[in-house]
Structure formats: C-alpha cells, structure tokens
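tmp note - YscQ/HrcQ family type III secretion apparatus protein
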Amino acid sequence: CAKRIISLLSESEKNIEIRVNGALTGYGELVEVDDKLGVEIHSWLSGHNNVK
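out:
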C-alpha cells in the first residue's frame, strides 16, 4: 500500500460528515493515531433518513 500525505489547511477541514451508501449518518473529526489517519466520531444521527 502506497503512503499518502494529506495536508489540512485549517481546523475546519478536519471536521467531516460520515456517510454510508450516500446517506449522512454522523459527524466526526480527522485525527492522527500512531502516524495513521483516523476518525474521532462526535455524533451519530438517528431517524428514518439514515441507512436501513
């Protein structure tokens, strides 16, 4: 697997939407964990519009 460098210009670019099959399911933030890119989940959405 080739390594990739992702440059983030500001704190706002770390905030992400989590989508499954195109449906918005939550919000999170990109974080570095042991030199790897990860996602810290801030909230999950609930309701009938999410993935079933």
